[in-house]
C-alpha cells in the first residue's frame, strides 16, 4: 500500500504544467540577467571610485606643495 501511495505522489509531481515550467524558466532567466546587470554596474562603480581616489590623491599632493610655499 505504501509503495502505491508513493508512486501516485511521484506520478502527480511529474505532471507539471508545461506553461508553469516555461514561466518559471523565464523568470529565472530574467533574474539571472538582472544579476549580471547589477554585477556590471558594481564593476563600473568600483572603477569610478578608484578613479576618484586617484584624483583626490593628486589634489592632496598639489595642496601639500602649495601649503609648503606659503610663508608662515
Features:
72 residues, mainly alpha, rod-shaped
Structural write-up:
- The protein is mainly α and 72 residues long.
- It has one domain.
- 90% of the residues lie in helices and 0% in strands.
- The chain contains two helices and no strands.
What's the helix count? 2
- Tell me the fraction of residues in β-strands, as a range: under 5%
Tell me about the biggest sheet? none
Average predicted local confidence, pLDDT: 88
* Straight-line distance between termini: 98 Å
From the alpha carbons, calculate the radius of gyration and give it in angstroms: 30 Å
- Gross morphology: rod-shaped
Helix content: over 70%
The arrangement of helices and strands along the chain is: HH
Number of strands: 0
Low-confidence stretches: none
Q: Structural class of the secondary elements? A: mainly alpha
Number of domains: 1
Amino acid at each position: 500500500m505504501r509503495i502505491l501511495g508513493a508512486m501516485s505522489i511521484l506520478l502527480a509531481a511529474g505532471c507539471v504544467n508545461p506553461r508553469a515550467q516555461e514561466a518559471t524558466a523565464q523568470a529565472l532567466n530574467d533574474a539571472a540577467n538582472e544579476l549580471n546587470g547589477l554585477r556590471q554596474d558594481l564593476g563600473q562603480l568600483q572603477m569610478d571610485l578608484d578613479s576618484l581616489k586617484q584624483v583626490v590623491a593628486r589634489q592632496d599632493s598639489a595642496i601639500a606643495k602649495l601649503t609648503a610655499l606659503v610663508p608662515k
